[in-house]
Amino acid sequence: MYSSSESIANENFLVTNIQRFSVNDGPGIRTTVFLKGCPLRCAWCHNPECINPFNEIYHDTQKCVRCGACAESCPEGAITPPKKVTKNGNNAVSNNSCCSVPAPQAAAVDDVTFNPPVIDRDKCTMCMKCVDACKYGAITKAAAVMTLDEVLDDVVSDEMFYKTSGGGATISGGEPLFQPNTTLALLRAFKDKGISTALDTSGYASWKIIESLLEYVDLMLFDIKTLDDEKHIKWTGVSNTLIIENAKRLAKKGKPMRLRLPIIHDVNYWDLGHPRSVVDFARQLGGSVLGIDILPYHSLSESKNERLGRQYFFKGFPNLYKEDLQDYEEIIRNGGPWEVTIGGLIGVKRATA
């Protein structure tokens, strides 16, 4: 058995976001808690800040004033100071004297600009001294260190909206099952307050972990990236065998679930065999499948990856919209009795049948 709520009540864990008034992560109005850490490496990941289980830094060059304080604070020499660049016709002469012109004035000096500091992520030890040194919010922590009580206070504050809309709290990530103790404690705490719960998961975890949480979960939001194992390994880094087995086990337990289908360029877009295979799979799961949510690719993670200093495979790929996925919707809607959405907007209703 995993740790109780009481045993981690005063422990700290990493939360990248607490999204209030969420309407795409389960029924009704919800608060979604995003935990850090995931065993998958989805090439398109919409929440890349949630992948690694340790804290990281965002570097937003749009907010940077090129003052150089971050470079001066770094004990590892991992940050190259801002570079002054003087334009001379089509040529440029640069040097490392970043502070010869005060940062706020730099933009006003004719033909002189400053390139932002560059962080060597391989040298960085995540000491966070640059975060403390930056007074302009250009370098920030990707996650907040929080306690169970702090998260619970945030979630409970919107309790009246849950009651009137059939909403509740959703735990997401990353992969919540990657932090089973924290997830279990949060779910128990929510249920103790009479708050309906949903768990947004890839299903990639041991059955022992999943089974230990079930009595505290009202609705599973179960991701299906692709049912083709070879593609799954290519695009996420892991096999889907365990995921499929866990979905079938949940169905045997009669646990209500919604299948969540991210539709991604090159992975499962322009492939109508994908929605057909999902229909076949959902039929195998039977009455446990309350709905199927089609989630179109969006490019918001492109800027997140840039701020995290990462390469992004899908850089420049366009967003997908509802009209792009009408064939998917029709195939899935005609395939069974389940509710179908594009985008996950379920509306006001109860989480269980």
From TrEMBL:
Superkingdom of the source species: Bacteria
One Gene Ontology molecular-function label: oxidoreductase activity
4Fe-4S is among the record's keywords: yes
InterPro entries: 4Fe4S_Fe-S-bd, 4Fe4S_Fe_S_CS, Aldolase_TIM, BssD/PflA/YjjW, Organic_radical-activating, Organic_radical_activase, Radical_activat_CS, rSAM
Limits of the 4Fe-4S ferredoxin-type domain: 55-84, 115-144
Keywords: 4Fe-4S, Iron, Iron-sulfur, Metal-binding, Oxidoreductase, S-adenosyl-L-methionine
Signal sequence, renumbered to the chain: none
UniProt cofactor(s): [4Fe-4S] cluster
Keyword Repeat: no
Domain Radical SAM core: 24-337
Complex and partners: Monomer.
Family, per entry: Belongs to the organic radical-activating enzymes family.
Name under which the protein is recorded: Putative naphthyl-2-methyl-succinate synthase activating enzyme
